[in-house]
């Protein structure tokens, strides 16, 4: 009786592992675009945190205030990172529900 239960648990674990891998691959293929206030800067990342694009509105470039542009880039990047984290938690978290974690 114990052996059959263990085999069933192993099959479930393997199935869950395959699902997690598929979910991770899908997440990594997604694109996330973070924006700064007024959409003056947009930063696009893949789900595995690789930047694929950075768009800066020419109006955001003030030679007398480079710190403002840096702040807008940081805001856009942080927005995209939050989107990735939220999607990761939502997608991958479903695989651990009910495991007592």
Helix content: 55-70%
Order of helices and strands: HEEEH
**Major β-sheet, in short?**
3 strands, antiparallel
Extract low-pLDDT stretches.
Answer: none
Number of strands: 3
The amount of beta strand, in percent, is: 15-25%
Strand order, main sheet: write it out. Answer: 1-2-3
Report how far apart the termini are. 27 Å
**Structural class, judged by helices and strands?**
alpha+beta
Task: Please summarize what this structure is.
By secondary structure, the chain is α+β, with helices and mostly antiparallel strands. The protein is built from two helices and three strands.
Question: Would you kindly provide a written description of the structure presented here, covering whatever features stand out?
Answer:
- The protein is of the alpha+beta class.
- The protein has a domain at 48-89.
- It has helices at residues 2-29, 66-96; strands spanning 31-35, 41-46, 51-56.
- Strands 1-2-3 form a three-stranded antiparallel β-sheet.
- Strand 1 (31-35) and strand 2 (41-46) form a beta hairpin.
- The radius of gyration is 20 Å and the shape is rod-shaped.
Q: What layout of secondary structure does this protein have?
A:
Blueprint: H1 2-29, E1 31-35, E2 41-46, E3 51-56, H2 66-96
Antiparallel strand pairs: 1-2, 2-3
Main attributes?
101 residues, alpha+beta, rod-shaped, single chain, 2 helices
